[in-house]
Amino acid sequence: MSRILSPPSTFTGRLKYLGPGFILSAAIVGSGELIATTALGAKAGFITFWVIIVSCLVKVALQLEFGKNAIYTGTFMMHNFNQLPGRKWGRAHWSIWLWLSLQGLKLLQVGGIVGGVAIVLNMAWPAIPVNVWAIFSVLITSFLVYRGQYGLVEKGSLVMIILFTAVILMSLILLQGTKYAIHWEQVKSGLQFSLPTSLVAIAFGAFGITGVGGDEIMYYNYWCIEKGYAAYTGPNDGTPAWTERAKGWFNVMYLDAVLSMVVYTVVTAAFYLLGAAVLHSGGAVPEGYEMIEVLSRIFTETLGPWAKNLFLVGAFFVLYSTLFTATASWARVWGDAFGALGWMKFDSAENQRKSIAILSWILPAAWCILFLFIQSPVLMVILGGIATSILLLLIVYVSLVFRFKELPASLKPTLIYDIFFWISVISILTVSGYGVIKIF
């Protein structure tokens, strides 16, 4: 049965079809913001604020290319990777093997999130050990998402976005009435584009993990398809009617992506400023099991001791939103990748549901096991951020192919769009390339 649908032409009409960006925002505002961003602010003070802002703003153009690719092809990302020009090793394109080679560090990253969730729950109910909370958290998450229902993931993400955004903005506003009040000169010093050598590694990791990262850009394809953007557009039959529908759904997707960017940029900036203002002045850098306790000072020193419970609520939703959406997203992209490699079947709706269900249990179990052995959430998240920065280089290459090789000529964007696209590409190549050279 055809699902072709004319796109809404008004702003309010487009709002009704938003959703993939909610999932991305919930995924983004988690490990990067609560852990990597505040750790960078605690170590560097205000001086690297520009890294966070640039990280949030420059990647969205690549996200748009992946979203457009989902709409005009209607096929999943790893399938599209497998159609890229270049060598294949076995059944899969080299880009899929490169993606797979980075997943060891990415497993560590989400393992750090599992640890963060467990530590928060242990602080609230200390009678239950951290390790038990870690196991309980992944079991509940797997149960919630294994059926692969898009609507549940979207609604759950939206609720968590509202909760953690309200909590973090409240804390930043109330900070201005304390001795840690932020002044314009401090913010200005963080916008000077300077980066001490001693901070390169952590800034490189933060750049990869804050804002929309390489992983989230890839995930966006799956969520745009499941939302229905591609089905509403219909197969490309070369007609002017198809072109008009595609452009209309592009506009819906643009609004979805830009509003998502606004949310995660504001929240990320707030986390960084809180870390720089409160933790850097006291020399407190969150590490290991003490991570959550140290981070709670952001709230208790600005709002008073009573605010520790408020912090725990905010921290739980920030971290759990990433665990929840990562489980749903990873199950899809890994199932798709394993399908391209011939390790699983991902070629029909039924096989996709089965693969997602299986991986929704296996992947969280792997994250949990890694945390139980390593027990260092901050280190695990930073290592994952470095892998994400490397993955961004692959995303840049694929985005260039999508924009200049795959995009139908009838959907060619405006000059202003292309200028912004090239600014994004150059910024990512410059920062990621600099980080790779400094680290390796």
TrEMBL record:
Its main location: membrane. It is found in: Membrane. The chain crosses the membrane at residues 21-40, 46-62, 96-121, 127-146, 158-175, 195-213, 252-274, 310-335, 356-374, 380-402, 414-437. Keywords: Membrane, Transmembrane, Transmembrane helix. It comes from the Bacteria. InterPro entries: NRAMP_fam (IPR001046). It is a multi-pass membrane protein. This is Nramp family divalent metal transporter. It comes from Dyadobacter chenhuakuii.
